[in-house]
Write a structure and sequence with these properties.
Length: about 375
C-alpha cells in the first residue's frame, strides 16, 4: 500500500462499500486507491468500530463504548498497543476531546457562518489552537478528510501514523452516532450527504435557551462586578488623596510648631541676656555710689580733724611741755601720720609749716561711668 502525500497534506475520501452498509472505504482523493477500511460490529450489544489495513487485513485501531451516543468511548491502538479516551465535552454544541503524547486535541464544528465542516485542533488552555485535521461532508460520498502533516511536524508529534489512525476512527464514531440518531427518529437523512453533524431538537433548543439565560446572568454579574471594582477604585483613590492631604497638613503644623518653639527659645534667651546685662549695670551703679559715699565720708572726717592755725602755738606748747599731772596722749597710726605730715614731728623739733596745711577744698567728684550703649528688641 502506498500513502499519497501532497505537500505534507493527506487527503482522504470516505466511500460506502457496495457490498455492505457497515463497511466504508478510505480512498486517496487523487488516485482513489483504497488505503484503509472501516468496519462496524453489529453482532454485539455494545458499540464497536474498527479500522483495518485492506491488504493484510490487520487491525490497526478500534473504538468501543456502551453505544454510539455514549459520552465516553475507549480507543485502542495495536502494533504498538496503546489506549486513550474520547470524551464528549460539549454542553450545547459539538465538542469531543482526547489526549495524545501529553497534548490535548479537540474536535469542533468550524465557526465559519453556517459551515458544516468539523475541525480537530491541538489546544493549550485558551489558545486558538493548531489545526491538524478537517472533515467536510460530501454530496456523492460520505465526505472528505484532510490531515495536515506540516502542523504535526510543527507540534512535534513523534507517532504521526498513530495519531492519523485516531483521527480517522474518532471521525467515524461521529458518523455512526449520526446514523443511529437518524434511524431512531425515522428521518430520511442520507449518511452519504452528512447534512448535519449535530441535529437540533427540542431538547437542544431548551438547552440553548438555558445557556442564553446563564450567559445573560453571567454578563449581568460581570457588569455589576466591574461597577463594584470601579467604585472601590474610586473610593480608594479618594481615601489616598485625603490621607495625603492630612499628612501634608500635619507636616505643616509640625513645621509651624517647630518654628514657634525656636522663636520662643530665642526670645527667652534674649530676655535672659537682657536681665543679666541689667543686673550687671545695677551692680556697677551700686559700686560707684558706694565708692562716692566712702570718698565723701573720708573727706568730711579729714576736715573735722583739722585744727585752726591761730591755736597752733598753744597746741605745740601743750605737745612739747606736757603737764606732770597728765599722762601722755596716745594717737592712732593714722593720726600720727597726719600730724607728722602737716605739723611736723614734735619729737624731732619740727614746727608747723603753712605750706603743708591740709587742703581746704573737697576732692573732685568721680563721674559715673557711662554704660555701654545696648539696645535689644525692647529698645533699651
Amino acid at each position: 500500500m502506498t500513502l499519497q502525500l501532497h505537500g505534507n497534506i493527506k487527503n482522504y475520501e470516505f466511500v460506502r462499500s457496495a457490498e455492505t452498509k457497515d463497511e466504508v472505504e478510505i480512498q486517496d482523493s487523487i488516485t482513489h486507491e483504497v488505503l484503509y477500511k472501516k468496519f462496524r460490529q453489529t453482532s454485539t450489544q455494545t458499540y464497536r468500530s474498527q479500522l483495518v489495513d485492506p491488504i493484510p487485513e490487520v487491525l490497526l485501531v478500534e473504538i468501543e463504548g456502551k453505544s454510539s451516543k455514549d459520552k465516553l468511548k475507549k480507543v485502542m491502538l495495536y502494533q504498538p498497543d496503546d489506549t486513550l479516551e474520547l470524551k464528549d465535552t460539549g454542553i450545547l454544541g459539538f465538542e469531543y476531546k482526547f489526549s495524545w503524547e501529553g497534548e490535548n486535541y479537540v474536535w469542533k464544528r468550524r465557526s465559519l457562518g453556517f459551515s458544516r465542516e468539523i475541525e480537530c485542533k491541538m489546544v493549550h488552555g485558551d489558545d486558538p489552537g493548531i489545526g491538524v485535521a478537517i472533515f467536510k461532508p460530501g454530496k456523492k460520498t460520505i465526505g472528505h478528510m484532510t490531515i495536515m502533516y506540516f502542523n504535526l511536524e510543527r507540534i512535534g508529534v513523534n507517532d504521526k501514523r498513530g495519531l492519523e489512525y485516531v483521527l480517522l476512527i474518532t471521525m467515524f464514531s461521529f458518523l455512526d452516532k449520526l446514523e443511529d440518531e437518524s434511524s431512531s427518529k425515522k428521518k430520511n437523512v442520507t449518511v452519504d450527504g452528512l447534512n448535519e453533524v449535530v441535529e437540533e431538537g427540542s431538547s437542544e433548543t431548551k438547552k440553548k435557551e438555558k445557556w442564553r439565560k446563564k450567559k445573560s446572568s453571567e454578563k449581568k454579574e460581570q457588569k455589576e462586578k466591574e461597577k463594584r471594582l470601579v467604585e472601590e477604585r474610586r473610593l480608594a483613590e479618594e481615601n489616598e488623596v485625603r490621607r495625603r492631604e492630612m499628612e501634608r497638613r500635619e507636616e505643616e503644623r509640625l513645621r509651624e510648631t517647630e518654628i514657634k518653639q525656636k522663636e520662643l527659645l530665642k526670645k527667652l534667651k534674649q530676655e535672659k541676656e537682657d536681665q543679666e546685662y541689667a543686673r550687671k549695670l545695677l551692680l556697677e551703679e551700686e559700686e560707684e555710689e558706694e565708692e562716692e559715699r566712702l570718698s565723701s565720708h573720708n573727706y568730711l572726717r579729714d576736715k573735722s580733724n583739722q585744727r585752726p592755725r591761730n591755736n597752733f602755738a598753744y597746741e605745740e606748747h601743750q605737745l612739747r611741755t606736757p603737764s606732770s599731772s597728765s599722762t601722755s596722749t596716745t594717737y592712732s597710726p593714722w593720726e600720727t601720720n597726719y600730724r607728722n605730715t602737716y605739723y611736723g614731728n614734735p619729737a624731732a623739733g619740727a614746727m608747723f609749716n603753712p605750706e603743708n596745711s591740709p587742703p581746704t577744698t573737697p576732692p573732685p567728684k568721680r563721674t559715673k561711668k557711662k554704660p555701654k550703649e545696648y539696645k535689644n528688641e525692647y529698645g533699651w
